[in-house]
UniProtKB/TrEMBL annotation:
PROSITE patterns: PTS_EIID. Pfam families: EIID-AGA. It comes from Faecalibacterium duncaniae (strain DSM 17677 / JCM 31915 / A2-165) (Faecalibacterium prausnitzii). This is PTS system mannose/fructose/sorbose family IID component. One of its GO terms (cellular component) is plasma membrane. One of its GO terms (biological process) is phosphoenolpyruvate-dependent sugar phosphotransferase system.
Length: 248
């Protein structure tokens, strides 16, 4: 999710990203000031990883304007504004909803046994891995300009990647729910001398049904504004209470 602080941060980052190119290729101080001011006033809201590609394209266009003068300032601003949405869609679907979930699932599985490698693996792959990818995307955008995005849009690759990433991310969420959320009903009432295994009945209906219900309820609670910290304490308190009365 991209908050207001992220938007402000990305606007400032664009100034820092384009400043070396502007300083190197613009000869007139007034032109440098105009270029930096233009980027400082931009509204930028896109995926953090895909921002590298956007910044690279902006630097390429600034270089083109400084060397040949055939790129208007409004064109640079318009290109950045038009690419924010598509790049955000790709980045959020693939990196946030897909890659992050997969890496977190692997790391959680390792950390569940008390292995310190779990969180270190997550930081290395999702943290430093995406940091390196940002650099690669920046250099790609700087070398290719807008041609890369145009080709990807025309070929339909962008929409296909977004759909595939969304499906894979949803599958991984399901795997994480089934493997990491365990709810077992301990209550087994005896009726006419026969013990009723409630957990067994639920498993016959749908294995992991209570885990799915808990996840869905938590998701809806977060959507309605309940903070994650409060939700954690509510779940912990509920589990303790239900265990004391013999239900869990």
């Amino acid at each position: 999710m991209r908050t207001t602080s992220n938007v402000v941060g990305q606007g400032r980052a664009m100034v820092l990203s384009t400043a070396p190119v502007i300083e190197k290729y613009y000869q007139d101080d007034e032109a440098k000031k105009e270029a930096l001011t233009r980027h400082a006033s931009e509204y930028i809201n896109t995926n953090q990883t895909m921002y590298g590609l956007l910044a690279g394209i902006a630097c390429a266009m600034e270089k083109e304007r400084a060397e040949k003068g055939n790129v208007e300032p409004g064109t640079i601003t318009s290109v950045i504004a038009s690419l924010m949405g598509p790049l955000a869609g790709i980045g959020d679907s693939f990196f946030f909803n897909c890659v992050r979930v997969i890496v977190a699932g692997i790391a959680i599985g390792i950390a569940a046994d008390g292995n310190l490698l779990g969180p270190l693996l997550f930081v290395a792959l999702f943290g430093f891995g995406l940091l390196a990818l940002k650099y690669v995307l920046f250099m790609t955008g700087y070398r290719t300009g807008t041609s890369l995005i145009d080709q990807a849009s025309e070929s339909g690759i962008i929409s296909m990647l977004m759909e595939v990433a969304g499906i894979l991310g949803a599958m991984m969420v399901g795997v994480l729910i089934a493997s990491n959320i365990k709810i077992n009903i301990a209550l087994a009432p005896v009726v006419n001398g026969a013990e009723i295994n409630i957990q067994g009945i639920l498993d016959n209906v749908m294995p992991g049904l209570l885990s799915l219900v808990l996840w869905w309820g938590s998701y809806k609670a977060l959507q309605k504004g309940l903070t994650p910290v409060k939700l954690i304490f509510i779940i912990m308190g509920g589990c303790i209470l239900l265990s004391l009365v013999g239900i869990l």
